[in-house]
Write a structure and sequence with these properties.
The protein is mainly α. The protein has 1 helix and no strands.
Length: 77
């Protein structure tokens, strides 16, 4: 961009008609990336889903303690 502006200014100073700006090649549509296989999560309804608390904190991490644990705090991973 800077070089094109410099070239136009130089051509205008020399008394020539400014050159038309170069056209950029049309952007090709991006190919869709292959989606990774879903990772099994204990909260997806598997056999271990009943065994975990499942409480989520603000950042989205889930509690790894057993479901219905007596501890007041959660352990997040």
């Amino acid at each position: 961009m800077r070089e094109a502006k410099y070239a136009r200014a130089r051509a205008a100073a020399a008394g020539q008609a400014p050159a038309a700006p170069a056209k950029a090649a049309p952007a090709k549509p991006a190919k869709k990336a292959a989606q990774p296989a879903p990772v099994a999560s204990p909260l997806d309804g598997g056999a271990d889903a009943e065994a975990l608390c499942g409480h989520k904190n603000i950042s989205g991490r889930t509690c790894t303690r057993e479901k219905g644990h007596a501890a007041k705090s959660h352990r997040y991973s």
